[in-house]
Amino acid sequence: MDLRDEARKAQQTARDEILSSKSLDDLKSARTKHLGRKGVLTLLLRKLGQAAPDERKELGRLLNEAKDELLGLVDSRTDELKQATYASDLTGESLDVTLPGRKFRTGRRNLAVEMMNKIVDVFVGMGFTSVEGPEIETEYNNFDALNFPAWHPSRDDHDSFYVGEGHVLRTHTSPAQIRVMKSQPPPVRVVVPGRCHRRDTPDASHLMSFLQIEGLYVDHDVSMADLKGTLAAFAREIYGEETKVRFRPHFFPFTEPSAELDISCLVCGGKGCRLCKQSGWLEVLGCGMVHPNVYKHVGYDSLGVTGYAFGMGVERVAMLKYGIGDIRMLYDNDLRFLSQF
Amino acid sequence: MRLPYGWLQEFVKLDVTPEEICNYLIMLGFADAEVIPNEWDCLDNFIVGRATKVTEHPDEPHLKIVEVNVGYTSLTSICGAPNVDEGVLYAVAMPGAKLGSGRTVDAAPIAGVNSECVLCSGWEAWLDDSKEELLAIDSEVAPGIKLIEALGLDEPVIELEVTPNRSDCLGLIGIARELAAVFGKELIIPEPGLSEDGSEISDLATVEVLDTEACPRYGAIALEDVEVRGSSAEVRARLRLAGLRPISNIVDATNMVLFETGHPLHAFDLDKLAGSGIVVRRGGKGEKFVALDANEYELSPDDLVIADKEKPVAIAGVIGGQNSEVGAATKRVLIEGAFFDPPCIWKTSKRLGIATEASYRFARTVDIGAVLYVLARTAALIQQNTKCRVSHGMIDVYPEPVAPRHLFVNPKRINRLLGTSVPEQEICDYLERLGFLVSPGKDLEVVVPTRRRDVEFEADIAEEVARLYGYDRIEGTTTTTCQTYGKLPLESQIAGLARNTLTGMGLTEIVSDAMAGPASLDLFNLASDNVVEIRNPVGIQNSILRSSLVPGIVTALVKNERFGQEAVALYELGRVYLKKGAEFGEVLRLTIGLSGVTQPRAWYAQSRGFDFYDLKGILEALAASFDLEFGFSDGGYDFLHPGRRAVVSLNQGENSLEVGSMGELAPPVSDAAGARRRIYVAEIDFEHLIQPASRPRKYQDVQKYPAVKRDIAVIVPQSVVDSKIRDVILAEGGSLVESVETFDIYEGEQIPEGTRSIAYGIVFRSPARTLTEQEIDDLQKRMEERLGSEFGGKIRMKE
């Protein structure tokens, strides 16, 4: 048999095997057998050299045509087989999609901590740096430097917890003001989140330990209008764009002028309801312009700088926002509560 | 404080409703100002009636039959009071009325005669304690009108909060001054109108002040030929509206003035003062004193005492004494008006547990300049209503008169502070309306009245301006030229990432009490020498600050177990408080606690409880999230199960730093904590992670060369722990071992007792070249030989 016949025969065999292959695996071995490195056609191509020179050209063409045809057949058979597989998969592999998915346990961040971080983020966004201070604080930082007179009622051991000599569990985050101002010259622009402690009898709105956030901004030409604008922005960010704010005069030893900030009632929007005791307003924080005596204590020139400070109870913010009536729920560590937020 | 609206109107004439006034008061700084509901519905069935005819009862000599004109008709009343006068108006309780005595009026025969209504005493009409005399109505009203109307008890009452700095507003005039300033109205301060028709004061009494620091000013005025009786019904009603209890015409007058001016006064029976002299001195140690509240108090040198020549007669500024009380027999009265050192009064009031209208005001400070005015005003009020003679002159011990403060304030600076542009003239106007004297100049010179000791600085003046200008008119601004930018401290950043990771792994964050009790130290066998103790705790269970987060999280785990939670996976990031010598430290720690099932029963899986390795896996994943690695070795807290605990260390190259402890709670501890399930806890010093977690990292080339994976299974005695085997694999493989994963553990039939088979999946890779099968074969062989020689391990052939 001459090479020509051999080639024709090989082509026919390969064609039959490719077309009759029943699976992609069959097809792959057929392809290797005939067209692979050691395949029949490849071997024939190698034998071209033995052919008479005048036949070589034609034979070469013949073999290449056969190869091209077979490769085309492999491709089309591959496609056929894949389509057939898809079709059977699609019909035979259906699931009960109504079965529940595999469960993942979902954890929650703590509402109080989360609220505190959120408030801090709002102020960081407005250019405040967050810093922390110790909870075991000197009486000096907690009271004296904040212009509390020596006989102020809150210093009483019925109201504050005392520790060691000259130390108190901070009753507010305000002593951090003193630490920050003593450690750097103006401008100072910080928020101080943290735990505070007061000797209160726990009830629906009081705890012995609670979270506060202090804000302090001291620079040249910081005004009460800035304070108001900043806190209004805070209130809108936390309670929603429609929230209105009201500034009312108040008294704190370490600010002058002092104010309390009210927001429009979250339940009635200002019309008057039980939550706001018909007033339309809810008190959320205390604030004011830093008192000249505080500047004296930290060694700032009280004529050269102006600044404001504010402090808010974090739990109250959360309670108002979510309609929680009892502050103790926040720290009961009950998953039925925690997993709602 | 309570403001009866009609009374307030005597000092400023306002044509706005009480509700509107409340809004103004709130915006002036008097929080929660509101009109309170009328509290006198107990007088619903009380009216005013005129006694038209009084006759003796035929059978009972102490009873009278009184015809009472009640407007629409005439009723009969049987009355036992001594003073029923024809033509006088009395308080009358109609059938259905409940009397102050508790009895309900009911038309019924008394001693045979039908009594259709009751003529009331002050006690029966709910006003005060006077039971004998009938309550006569002095004002000319028509019989039949309601009693509350006749007495003015129907007028609105405003209640408000006065901040501690505004002691000048603890009287009606103070509030009236604020309102007059806002509305631009005139403030009406009553002239005393005194007629000094008595003896020279120096002939009547003397005053000696031994402690002028605690009592910088002491004034007195005397009354002679006084007739002590009940005040008029109208005065009594007014005092009740203000929240005070009527006593007698003398005491009521001092209380009226207290309420008008905020300045407390006290009345002594002058004839009960030994030597007719007042001595203001410190209390003696152990000195006993019976106060008007009938309690005996033991005085101390910390207390300021008003004494006569022999004995204390009052605790200064706090409460009077029974021994000098004005009573029905009193003929001569000495009225005290003084200024006492606020801290001194506050301390005594606190120490003795006596809070009175007087101590409340003296402790907040009163107007030292007003002493003579309030004395004159009190004497005048008594004189208007009672026959008496007022002494000529007043005693005034005032060695160092307090001058009004002069402040120099700059309108520009005030506007700068407020962020406003209030014209200078307007500023002056506001201040003058509040009673400050203002003189123009480069800076304004402001004279601050003595009643406003709270005004010390320009900032205080700015607040006055802002209050009258209106806090609500200050326009909020947020523009700033501040050269700062906002940032979070590293600790918060890392803590935030840890919270993300832990929450993402299905743990819920808790916050536990900062305070604990010594019982928790005992239960968890924690050291007590580094614990911070609270000097004045509320109860033993809150007497220390927590030195570990574990007791808190265990409490939460147990509580949630009790609530029926199947899976409880919690964490807390919080401070613990530690004492080192005299120093205090606060350290940020992380605790993780698990109890219950991690895999609930489901159609696709068997239920499985949390175990040691769940906790360990959480810690490993947390470390990995920061590209760190924890090591676990024998040991750990005493309260952990000795066979199921580990010390946690942070691996850093060659070094490792101990950072905490983890494991299963020892059964006795978990029993004592009330747990029914096994509890797994870890506590890590989070501060140790902050720097390593935030160290700078550099990009490393992604591996280009293929990995070779091999499995090795080795049968070793039970005593050989997994980490030893992995150490050998790593030691032999050197840098070519990319990872070793323990993927199977088998104990059972096919292998000898006391042994187990552990299988490892090893990934080999070189960063520099493609590894050959041959060299991996060699490496694996060396590993197997070494495992054999070191642990007597037999290599299980892969099938």
Give an account of the 3D structure:
Chain A has 2 domains: 3-92; 111-338, BirA Bifunctional Protein, domain 2 (2-Layer Sandwich), CATH 3.30.930. Helices cover 41% and strands 20% of the residues of chain A. Chain A has helices at 3-20, 24-35, 40-46, 53-92, 111-125, 139-142, 175-183, 224-239, 292-298, 314-322, 335-338, and strands at residues 129-130, 136-138, 162-163, 167-169, 188-197, 209-219, 245-252, 255-264, 281-290, 306-313. In chain A, strand 7 and strand 8 form a beta hairpin. The longest helix of chain A has 40 residues, at 53-92. Chain A starts with a helix and ends with a helix. Chain B is α+β, with helices and mostly antiparallel strands and 799 residues long. In chain B, the strands form 10 sheets. In chain B, strands 27, 30, 31, 32, 33, 34, 35 and 36 form an 8-stranded mixed sheet that branches. In chain B, helix 2 (18-28) crosses helix 4 and helix 20 packs across helix 21. The longest helix of chain B is centred in the last third of the chain and has 19 residues, at 773-791. The radius of gyration of chain B is 42 Å and the shape is elongated. The interface between A and B is large, with 92 and 95 residues.
